[in-house]
Amino acid sequence: MNKGKKLYEGKAKIIYEGPEKGTAIQHFKDDATAFNNLKKSSVEGKGILNNRISEHILNNLNQIGIKTHLIKRLNMREQLVKIVEIIPVEFIVRNIATGSLTKKLGITDGTILSKPLIEYSYKNDDLGDPLIAKEHILEFNWATEEELDFIKENCLRINDFMQGMFRGVGIKLVDFKLEFGRINNEDKNEILLADEISPDTCRLWDVISEKKLDKDRFRKDLGNIIEAYQEVARRLGIMHEKANISEVQFGKPKAVNLKKK
Ligand code: 5GP
Predict the structure, then answer these.
(1) String of DSSP letters for 145-191
(2) Which domains are seen in the chain, by residue range?
(3) pLDDT digits (tens, 9 = 90+) for 4-47
């Protein structure tokens, strides 16, 4: 499928114009960044795995009635998606306290939360995606009260579904980030789940060993990033049990080259 002009380049993805009005091609790069771009590297094969894992999860969510931007996966690195007007808020869902929650509030790492906690961050790299309140979202018209209620309900349904899906393959869903966008459908705004759901956007721990199977391997210099993402793909049945890196057509993982500014 022919790509149109580049519409946007983010840290891990590029968005191109799609073949038809209202569509875009989402291209998954191998680039990895953390700490608001202070740490950068390329992890060979990561884009391919995230493309497959995100496709799998969004298709499954679609089957339980969650509307998403995904139309179909096109190839190893690309998906055809609907163009949405992104709501500039990252919706973080947490089941276990870790990461910025423990840092900001001094909560003990690994504390199991009594119920899922939804947090909002303003999607703004220059400001470091600051934590915000619902009142900020309403005051600055980033979303309406009605849209927020709908999104929160969706976040909880997505969490329920994903917790079950991962638990079934021996993985704890610790936390994750979601993005939503609007499309205009027959003169009515509709909210769709957008972006991606992958080990780049979730924290995933092995149920028994608590081994991290997500982007924290990159953030915390734990190594074996691709092996961890492949393990997630294998357990979800996306990659064959015995498949190895070369069979999914990307080379051996490169040593991670850390460039700290
Ligand atoms: P934390 O706020 O603890 O750093 O992150 C909470 C969860 O949201 C983690 O699963 C993390 O991967 C995800 N997350 C939060 N912000 C971002 C972001 O800007 N990019 C990505 N890829 N994930 C994020």
Answers:
(1) HHHHHHHHHHHHHHHHHHHHHHHTTTEEEEEEEEEEEEEEETTEEEE
(2) 6-84+225-247 (3.30.200.20), 87-206 (3.30.470.20)
(3) 999 999 999 999 999 999 999 999 999 999 998 899 999 999 99
Exposure string for 47-68, b = 16+ CB within 10 A, e = fewer: bbbbbbbbbbbbeebeeeeebb
Q: Would the pTM count as exceeding 0.85?
A: yes
pLDDT digit string, tens, across residues 121-152: 999 999 999 999 999 999 999 999 999 999 99
Bridge partner residues of 80 (DSSP): 25, 72
Q: Is 200 in the pocket of ligand 1 (CB under 6 A)?
A: yes
- Nearest residue (by CA) to ligand 1, atom 2, is 100
Which of 117, 99, 243, 239 has its CA nearest to residue 169? Answer: 239
DSSP letters for 128-152: T--EE-HHHHHHTTSS-HHHHHHHH
Amino acid present at 121: S
- What is the full DSSP assignment across 72-124? EE-SSSEEEEE--EE-SEEEEEEEE--HHHHHHH-PPTTPEEEEEEEEEEE--
* Shortest-distance atom of ligand 1 to CA 103: 3
Cα(176) to ligand 1 centroid in Å equals 6
Closest CA relative to residue 204, chosen from 127, 98, 86: 98
202 CA → ligand 1 middle, Å: 7
CA contacts within 13 A on the Cβ side of 94:
19
